[in-house]
Amino acid sequence: MFPVAVIEDAAAAEVSLDPVRARLLAELAEPASATMLAARVGLPRQKVNYHLRALESHGLVELVEERRKGNVTERMMRATAASYVISPTALAAVQPDPARSPDRLSARWLLAVAGRLVRDVGLLITGAARAKQRVATFALDGEVRFASAADRAAFAEELTAAVTTLVGKYHDETAEKGRNHRVVVAVHPSVPEEPAHGA
Q1: What is the 3 state secondary structure string of the chain?
Q2: Was domain 5-84 assigned CATH 2.40.160.10?
Q3: pTM for the full predicted model
Q4: pLDDT digits (tens, 9 = 90+) for 77-104
Q5: 125, 81 in Cβ contact below 8 A?
């Protein structure tokens, strides 16, 4: 099971967004059968089986074991990932394009950049899985508390200068075997974390 997977297909995204199926995905962090799930979610086993087949046909759940119980074979299923992110490629005709209105101070532009980031990393993960390779990535995630809007603006200015200097130092347009990498740096107000389910 992957810690996170990207859903790129529109039909798979639709299947995953159904409330019952989303609940089944959450329950399938650990392997379970349709009978076990039916008791947990309060639905008939046949209905759970129907939803599991839909999830399985889109690669969102997988068979991990078959158990023989008398004349019945019990299929133990598990989600293919602990969590899922829906890529903008699932809505290809309306996916965000940061080039439409580049504005470093716009929250909507930041959202478009983040959407492109999800799309690109999802495509890289899919390609790397096919090639049985790893994707060379790096990310920073942190928090800073500004005393004032002026401090925030000064921070943004210094950060821009520092990143521009680093890019200038390492970017080599003439490197024959070089590979382009995208750099994304974002600053936005922190959003309080939701309490863990059941906490």
Answers
A1: CECCEEECCHHHHHHHHCHHHHHHHHHCCCCECHHHHHHHHCCCHHHHHHHHHHHHHCCCEEEEEEEEECCEEEEEEEECECCEEECHHHHHHHCCCHHHCCCCCCHHHHHHHHHHHHHHHHHHHHHHHHHCCCCCCCCCCCCCCCCCHHHHHHHHHHHHHHHHHHHHHHCCCCCCCCCCCCCCCCCCCCCCCCCCCCC
A2: no
A3: 0.78
A4: 999 999 999 999 998 888 888 888 888 8
A5: no
CATH 1.10.10.10 in the chain is located at: 5-84
- 63 HSE (CA, 13 A, CB side): 9
Per-residue model confidence as pLDDT tens digits over 61-82: 999 999 887 888 889 999 999 9
